[in-house]
């Protein structure tokens, strides 16, 4: 019985990894975090955001994070927001394609560049992709924002990437569990 329990645990772990395939977790601003001193244009350069990815915003208790619409983003309007966070560690799952806008709740910081505009692309490697009717396709990942001078600051995203080989391992592990019970 204990051997079957071990197979069950490992199979469930492998299956869990398979479900999270091709997802990246990005720490916004890397080691600097969501901060006025972070060059967010440089940070996001070359990154491609897709459905299933996650943005993690880490910031001081004196800062905040707001998701807004395009017009509020362009004008740094901090009163017309979709949602605001102030917990210092906010996780935003990117669940659908399209453009997303984030800014600091401090309007002066926003005007100084503490804002992020990303394009989330459809995840082409998803196992069961449902067509989205009426939703615009994003042309490319990255940002349209270009109001800060860029500098060559190295930027690394913390990535969790699981390929199709682990999907196969997960399925085989699950089948192994079923076979061991019969």
Automatic annotation (TrEMBL):
GO terms for molecular function: electron transfer activity; metal ion binding. Residues 24-122 form the Phytocyanin domain. SUPFAM superfamilies: Cupredoxins (SSF49503). It holds the Pfam family Cu_bind_like. CDD domains: Phytocyanin. Residues 140-151 have a biased composition (Low complexity). Keywords: Chloroplast, Glycoprotein, Membrane, Metal-binding, Plastid, Signal, Transmembrane, Transmembrane helix. GO terms for cellular component: plasma membrane. The chain crosses the membrane at residues 162-181. Residues 1-23 form the signal peptide. InterPro entries: Cupredoxin, Phytocyanin-like, Phytocyanin_dom. Residues 131-154 are annotated as: Disordered. PANTHER family: BLUE COPPER PROTEIN, PHYTOCYANIN DOMAIN-CONTAINING PROTEIN. This is Cupredoxin superfamily protein. It comes from Artemisia annua (Sweet wormwood). The lineage of its organism: Eukaryota, Viridiplantae, Streptophyta, Embryophyta, Tracheophyta.
């Amino acid at each position: 019985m204990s051997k079957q329990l071990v197979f069950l645990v490992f199979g469930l772990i492998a299956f869990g990894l398979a479900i999270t395939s091709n997802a990246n977790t990005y720490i916004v601003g890397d080691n600097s975090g969501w901060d006025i001193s972070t060059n967010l244009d440089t940070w996001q350069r070359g990154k491609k955001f897709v459905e299933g990815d996650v943005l993690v915003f880490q910031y001081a208790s004196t800062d905040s994070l707001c998701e807004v619409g395009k017009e509020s983003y362009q004008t740094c309007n901090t009163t017309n927001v979709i949602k605001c966070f102030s917990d210092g560690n906010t996780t935003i799952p990117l669940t659908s394609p399209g453009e997303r806008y984030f800014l600091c709740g401090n309007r002066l910081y926003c005007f100084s560049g503490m804002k992020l505009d990303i394009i989330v692309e459809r995840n082409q490697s998803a196992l069961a992709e449902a067509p989205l009717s009426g939703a615009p396709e994003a042309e490319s990942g990255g940002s349209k924002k270009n109001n800060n001078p860029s500098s060559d600051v190295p930027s690394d995203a913390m990535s969790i990437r699981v390929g199709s080989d682990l999907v196969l391992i997960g399925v085989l592990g699950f089948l192994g569990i079923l076979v061991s019970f019969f």
